């Protein structure tokens, strides 16, 4: 078993881009990742709704963290190679919850599904992320 260094997933420890997203992880495992964020005017398009890029970022982040946890004991992590996100409903502001689960976990590739819901449980966006399992950089 290879020792790995755990990444700091606190939004305040992230770079400026991920800090602006404001994603907070609630549960992280190789089989499920849950997180939440507050959508605000800072995330809006010029038309006053949440930008789809926020949803794509959140979906890829959740999938990448879960997939990386699945291979971390092997000294590897997962990097996204494809992200297909569907924007289902326009959203203005408030809490958004996200849940990611694996659809397939292979030796080289993983496929994760993530769904973003509002406080009423309505799906706002959903996405699938294909990830490549690779060795940690030395």
UniProtKB/TrEMBL annotation:
Gene Ontology cellular component terms for the protein in this record:
cytosol
UniProt keyword list:
Hydrolase
Decide whether keyword Hydrolase is in the record: yes
Thioesterase domain ranges (all copies):
48-122
InterPro entries assigned to the protein according to its UniProt record, in alphabetical order: HotDog_dom_sf, PAAI_dom, Thioestr_dom
Coiled-coil positions:
none
Any one Gene Ontology MF annotation carried by this entry is: 1,4-dihydroxy-2-naphthoyl-CoA thioesterase activity
The record's PANTHER family line, in alphabetical order, gives:
1,4-DIHYDROXY-2-NAPHTHOYL-COA THIOESTERASE 1
Q: Which family does it belong to?
A: Belongs to the thioesterase PaaI family.
Q: What is this protein called?
A: Uncharacterized domain 1-containing protein
């Amino acid at each position: 078993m290879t020792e790995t260094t755990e990444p700091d997933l606190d939004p305040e420890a992230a770079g400026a881009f991920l800090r602006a997203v404001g994603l907070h992880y609630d549960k992280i495992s190789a089989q499920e990742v849950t997180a939440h964020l507050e959508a605000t005017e800072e995330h809006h398009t010029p038309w006053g709704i949440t930008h789809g890029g926020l949803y794509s970022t959140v979906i890829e982040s959740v999938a990448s963290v879960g997939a990386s946890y699945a291979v971390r004991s092997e000294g590897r992590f997962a990097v996204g190679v494809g992200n297909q996100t569907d924007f289902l409903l326009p959203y203005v502001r408030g809490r958004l919850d996200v849940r990611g689960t694996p659809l397939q976990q292979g030796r080289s590739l993983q496929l994760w599904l993530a769904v973003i819901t509002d406080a009423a449980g309505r799906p706002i966006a959903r996405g699938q992320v294909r990830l490549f399992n690779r060795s940690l950089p030395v």
